[in-house]
TrEMBL record:
An annotated GO BP: translation
Alphabetized InterPro entries for the sequence: EF-G-like_DII (IPR053905), EFG_III/V (IPR035647), EFG_V-like (IPR000640), G_TR_CS (IPR031157), P-loop_NTPase (IPR027417), Ribosomal_Su5_D2-typ_SF (IPR020568), Ribsml_uS5_D2-typ_fold_subgr (IPR014721), Small_GTP-bd (IPR005225)
Protein name, per record: Tr-type G domain-containing protein
Keyword field: Antibiotic resistance, GTP-binding, Nucleotide-binding, Protein biosynthesis
GO molecular function annotations of the record: GTP binding; GTPase activity
Function, as annotated: Abolishes the inhibitory effect of tetracyclin on protein synthesis by a non-covalent modification of the ribosomes.
Length: 877
């Protein structure tokens, strides 16, 4: 064979992926009999759970020969719940074959797969299957794919000289266009290159079940796909061996297998190969066997070379995603797809807890995304899953492999936390004869970027070895936020300053200082909770579309204008996981089984009900002993712990942010800034008159009471006030502009809500007075919008009270629509904050660049501001 390549076959559920894999093997003569997924005798579906469910759960390999090519096929799972298994296989393939159902067209999982392929720039062939059942012809199929996935798709089922083929390849490849205009023909080498560079995606059509179009597909792959050595120029079997691990599994005798692809050099039996163990150390382990698998069977070989895929025994420290040999130093690949639900799993039989945990660790080795967590569990463990199907499969696996049953408790959403503006964190670690200080600037990162680290310190200030050590400590640990203790994400951590001692600094000192610096910054930062969001497509009877739209709006989702298809309607949009998780059951119920939802995780974004999530959480950042923002300083020959909010008084290096922009340390109180705004607007006497008139007299010379330790509820109130003070600091500026949904705010406060039932005008007047005073305190702009149908002015009007703009919308105009238009008009030139708990208003405002705050949070901010003023006036009477 002149060339070898590895091709991953990917698809959405029921596209016929495994059937196509089987058909390719049959055409190539690798198998003599065609199996069927629906009959449970497919060559690929070897596990009992796969036969029972008719789906692929585990990726598998098999080789075939066609013309001058040896093609190793990796058959991957097509169900959403097993996307992580599919993604791991992408690290070791040269090309992808994406299977699309000609009946259903591209689905939401197709979008997920396509996004992963494009992120890795993997050349891709497309096979449109089930054309014998499809209504749409090839041209319509191609148009449907382009409409969903983008451009670059060309019909390769026609002759190379066909006008449509020439037009397609020359349109997407400037090099091919130039070659055609010069020579009036399309060079094959140019097509190979255009496909490899992802300019062109060949499309073929057929029916795998009836062997139609399969030979043409294999011909096209063999003709227009480079071999491994052509794709990876300079790689040689004579190089030192380097390999990538993409899967850990166990055979029927429970022997541990590492499935790898050799990326350079040659791997031989009894070689001692470098591997990074769980402690992060590079160790050398012996290879006992090399197996070449074909489905469930395998053959033993003495060696494999670059480009080959095999399973090895003996490398007991290997993990999926990491490198071996020359690639052992590389960081393990974590992938994009992450589970978003956590469950507690408990054995229902009499099983020793240690054995149960050991068994769960075995499963975690095979699927690292399970993230086994033992914390706070006396019996059982916490585990992360993608959905109900994975839960059912896992339950079946545990019974068949370990011999006992398990129970899953109700799942909960996995939240994450991030920061919304830069903050500097300081960590100091100085027990006796130890020393390290680290300053980190923690800034907001792009959504979906994860944790990004770098350094800005010159090497003559802090040695490169120390800097690399600090950066490695930032990468080695999952840090948690301070609001609910959720994993930290989407931040950029920059090493801004650091100090070591010539005699006393050891490697572990910088680990402690780095960890403490991260936590110190988070304790002082403005943080927000992120939740998983999904894009969705709901197809249901048109008579039920109103119910779906109401549910989506009430769940803080958004949607496009519905599309009508006969007596059915299609609704596309996006929504938080809290709405999507169990919506299929509800949809089935109210549509009589005719409704269907497909969804795709699009990533994490701001939590739609952050205040409720924080309120429900029992996490207390100050009591977290594992992650602390406190520092340790040497005092009288011993280590002294200094609380996180006092570290700035003891640290040895100045704030890096201070030295650059002259800003105050973030740990200082915001009272100076917020009270300065108040003093600009009114004298102390005027403030006193205004607020005593509105909110009652302020008692003088109150005795100081020494309070006991706050209760849990008091502490939560203090935390809410702290977050509220952060928000006040942000908006205490003449450039800030609040746009308030008037009736929404009235209904959010019990007193005003009750007043509105008796006299809506009095409730409006009370709200206007409060907000006018609040505006005066902050020195910002304020617009209050009331729906016209609640007042007798159908033509709409605008007027001003105490520099506060009051708007009554027109008779046929809602407050939602007015606020959307206003934020669109002023959002680019002013710092706008929209106050409303209406999810539609929030979503539209966010789209126009405005900040958003719920009515409930805004009321807390108002009360916080009033308390600040009362405290200030008490101190200055």
């Amino acid at each position: 064979m002149s060339k070898k390549l590895t091709m991953g076959i990917l698809a959405h559920v029921d596209a016929g992926k495994t059937t196509l894999s089987e058909a390719m093997l049959y055409s190539a003569g690798t198998i003599r009999k065609l199996g069927r997924v629906d009959k449970g005798d497919s060559f690929f579906d070897n596990y009992e759970v796969e036969k029972n469910r008719g789906i692929t759960v585990f990726s598998k390999q098999v080789g075939l020969n066609w013309q001058d090519s040896h093609i190793t096929i990796l058959d991957t799972p097509g169900h959403d719940d097993f996307s992580a298994e599919m993604e791991r296989a992408l690290d070791v393939i040269d090309y992808a074959l994406l299977v699309v159902s000609g009946v259903d067209g591209p689905q939401s999982h197709t979008d997920t797969v396509w996004r992963l392929l494009r992120a890795r720039k993997i050349p891709t062939f497309i096979f449109v299957n089930k054309m014998d059942l499809a209504i749409a012809d090839k041209e319509e199929q191609l148009s449907r794919i382009k409409g969903r996935l983008g451009e670059g798709f060309v019909d390769f089922s026609v002759a190379k000289e066909d006008e449509a083929f020439v037009d397609g390849v020359t349109f997407y490849s400037p090099e091919l266009a130039e070659a055609f205009f010069e020579n009036l023909e399309i060079p094959s080498e140019g097509i190979l290159k255009a496909i490899a560079e992802c300019q062109i995606f060949p499309c073929l059509f057929g029916s795998a079940l009836h062997q139609e179009g399969v030979d043409k597909l294999l011909d096209t792959i063999s003709t227009y796909a480079y071999g491994f050595y052509e794709l990876h120029e300079g790689v040689s079997p004579e190089d030192k061996m380097g390999a990538l691990v993409y899967k850990i599994a166990r055979d029927q005798r429970d022997e541990r297998l590492s499935f790898v692809r050799v990326m350079n050099g040659t791997l031989k039996v009894r070689d001692s190969i470098a591997v990074r163990n769980s402690d992060g150390e590079i160790v050398h382990e012996k290879v006992n066997q090399i197996r070449i698998y074909s489905g469930q069977k395998y053959s033993l070989v003495d060696s494999v070379s670059a480009g080959d895929i095999c399973a090895i025994t003996g490398a007991g420290s290997s993990r999926a995603g990491q490198g071996l040999g020359t690639l052992a130093e590389n960081e393990a690949r974590n992938g994009i797809i992450e589970p978003f639900i956590t469950y507690k799993i408990v054995p229902i039989d009499d099983v020793d807890q240690n054995k149960f945990i050991s068994d769960m660790r075995v499963l975690e080795e095979e699927d690292p995304k399970l993230h086994i967590d033992l914390e706070d569990n006396i019996r059982g463990v916490n585990i992360r899953l993608m959905g109900e199907v994975q839960q059912e499969i896992l339950e079946s696996q545990i019974m068949s492999r370990f011999g006992y049953g398990v129970r899953f408790e109700t799942g909960s959403i996995i939240y994450k936390e991030t920061v919304i503006e830069p903050v500097e964190g300081v960590g100091h670690f100085e027990p006796l004869r130890h020393y390290a200080e680290v300053h980190l600037i923690i800034s907001p990162g792009e959504r979906g970027s994860g944790i990004v680290t770098d350094s800005e310190i010159p090497e003559d200030v802090l040695g490169r070895n120390w800097q690399n050590l600090i950066l490695s400590h930032l990468d080695e640990r999952i840090f948690h936020g301070v609001l609910i203790g959720a994993p930290l994400t989407d931040v950029h951590s920059t090493l801004a300053a650091g100090k070591a001692h010539d005699k006393h600094t050891e490697g572990g000192d910088f680990r402690q200082a780095t960890y403490r610096a991260v936590r110190n910054g988070l304790m002082r930062a403005r943080c927000h909770i992120l939740e998983p969001w999904f894009s969705f497509e709901i197809k249901l009877p048109s008579a039920n579309i109103g119910m779906a739209m109401t549910d989506i709006k009430n769940g803080s989702g958004t949607f496009d204008e519905p599309k009508v298809d006969g007596d059915m309607s299609i609704l596309n949009g996006k929504a938080p996981a809290a709405l999507i998780l169990d919506y299929q059951r509800k949809l089935t119920s109210y549509t009589g089984g005719r409704g269907r939802i497909s969804c795709m995780l699009i990533g994490y974004d701001f939590c739609h009900n952050e205040a409720e999530v924080i309120e429900d959480s029992v996490y207390d950042a100050d009591k977290d002993e594992i992650e602390t923002g406190d520092s340790i300083f040497c005092h009288h020959g011993a280590g002294k712990t200094v609380k996180w909010d006092e570290v700035h008084d003891f640290m040895h290096l100045p704030y890096a942010l201070d030295s650059e922009d002259g800003a105050k340390g973030k740990s200082s109180s915001i009272r100076d800034e917020t009270m300065a705004a108040g003093r600009k607007l009114a004298s102390d006497a005027e403030l006193l008159a205004i607020f005593e008139k509105t909110y009652g007299s302020i008692s003088k010379n109150k005795p100081v009471k020494h309070k006991a330790k706050p209760t849990e509820s008091e502490y939560r109130a203090m935390e809410r006030q702290k977050r509220s003070l952060h928000r006040l600091e942000r908006v205490a500026s003449p450039d800030s502009h609040f746009v308030v949904d008037g009736y929404n705010l009235i209904n959010a406060e019990e007193h005003m809500k009750a007043l509105s039932r008796a006299d809506i005008g009095a409730a409006r007047e009370h709200l206007v007075n409060i907000l006018a005073n609040y505006r005066g305190y902050l020195g910002c702009k304020m617009t209050i919008v009331f729906d016209a149908y609640r007042v007798p002015y159908s033509f709409g009007r605008t007027y001003t009270i105490n520099d506060t703009e009051i708007v009554y919308t027109k008779g046929n105009e809602t407050a939602d629509a007015y606020i959307a238009e206003l934020t669109k008009a002023i959002g680019k030139r002013e710092s706008v904050t929209v106050v409303s708990s209406d999810s539609l208003v929030q979503e539209m405002s966010l789209g126009h660049g405005a900040l958003r705050i719920s009515s409930r949070e805004f009321l807390i901010d108002i009360e916080t501001a009033l308390q600040e003023i009362r405290d200030f006036l008490d101190e200055n009477r």
